[in-house]
Amino acid sequence: MSAGERVPVGGNPEFADLDHAWGDGTRCVHAGQHAAVPGEPLVAGPVLSTQYHLSPGGEGGETDVYGRAGNPTWRALEQAIGELDGGRCVVFPSGMAAITTLLRVLLRPGDRLVLPSDGYFAVREWARTELSGVSVREAPTAGPWTEDVFDGAVLVLLETPSNPGLDVCDIRELARRANAAGAMVAVDNTTATPLGQRPLELGADVVIASDTKALSGHSDVLLGHVTVRDADLADALRRARTLSGAIPGPFETWLALRGLGTLDLRLARQAENARAVAEALHDHPAVRGLRWPGWESDPAHAVAARQMRRFGGVLGFELPDADAVRRFLERSRLVGAATSFGGLHTTADRRARWGDPVPEGFLRLSVGCEDTADLVADIRAALDGISWP
Ligand SMILES: *Cc1c(COP(=O)(O)O)cnc(C)c1O
Questions:
Q1: Can you tell me the distance from the alpha carbon of 108 to that of 100, in angstroms, rounded to the nearest whole number?
Q2: Which one of the record's GO molecular function terms can you name (predicted)?
Q3: How confident is the model at residue 17, as a pLDDT?
């Protein structure tokens, strides 16, 4: 199958068919919903059972046999995300479980892996400490992507927009070059979500994501997924999940599916709020280094606008120092101090406290679904009295 072609994930009689002409809102509401059967519930609940009825004579043919190997609630979420990502989806109990399972399945001792030097820190840490025998090369998301980066690589992991710096790289261009050098390309799509960006259509081989963030969106569930074009790779990921036992809880999976139904609405409000907050921040005397890929003067905007379908609610900016961040967070009534992002509530995280290679006063701001005017007024008031020396 060539890059950019959609994998048909519909046609499963268990689920309602989606029309690919439908918009994001319609698709989010209907993706992963069960086909209409009179008398059956409109909304299916989570299936918690660990055991399934088997054919008494052992003839086989059961869809599910045991809870570690398969679960109808997983399939509903996989159907939904697969429709939106445009590939075959396998869900995992966290973003890290998704990423580490992919790396374990694809890499062997002696292989070379390329990771973003400015991406999610736990991936680099895990590769350094747990992935023995694999050589890791780090490259910054913003480049330069010189030819030697791809030399001998088996897998190139991109993260765009990157967390926390919000740099962007050109997926189509890098996938073409990596594939030409014999490497597969996986894109961490956590920040963008399937509505913000469809890496498989841009030529990537694999999408990985933490659905703990905007996809679930309510800050009450950890989950992750891998979506691929290749059916054999999807089977290998399912097999690794079954054998390792790193499986998602059915109730958590159901919460994620419930959250996904409003993804379009939430992202629309978050992006509207992010734009208003960016406007308020960009010439504020307390703020430097504002980053939001949707902002026309952002260094990443041109590439972002080419490959992203919409921009989310995550911004980055710098205050003078850690104390200015503390004062800002103490004075704000709507911006909570919390790590993670993508939820209904606006939160901010001073990433240097976790060891990210960013300035002491750098804040990642995750804009929530509050009213725009309230949020902008609160942030302006909280910044009063802060300025660069
Ligand atoms: C949060 C995050 C992860 C890890 O996901 P968990 O669900 O916390 O395991 C991976 N990549 C990115 C970009 C993230 O933001």
A1: 13
A2: pyridoxal phosphate binding
A3: 87
How many Å lie between the centroid of ligand 1 and the Cα of residue 190? 7
Looking at residue 5, its pLDDT comes to: 58
- In sequence order, the 6+-apart residues with CB closer than 8 A to the CB of 2 are none
pLDDT at residue 35 greater than cutoff 60: yes
Q: What is the mean pLDDT of residues 6-15?
A: 73
120 part of the active site: yes
The 10s digit of each residue's pLDDT in 337-377 is 999 999 999 999 999 999 888 999 999 999 999 999 999 99
Domain that residue 309 falls in: 263-383
Looking at residues 146-171, what average pLDDT do you find?
97
| 21 Cα: distance to centroid of ligand 1 (angstroms) | 31
Atom of ligand 1 nearest to the CA of 222: 7
Q: Looking at 260, 277, 296, which one is the last position of a domain?
A: 260
Beta strand 184-188 with 206-210 is parallel
Burial of 25 (0-12, 13-18, 19+ CB in 10 A): middle
CA distance 86 to 354: 34
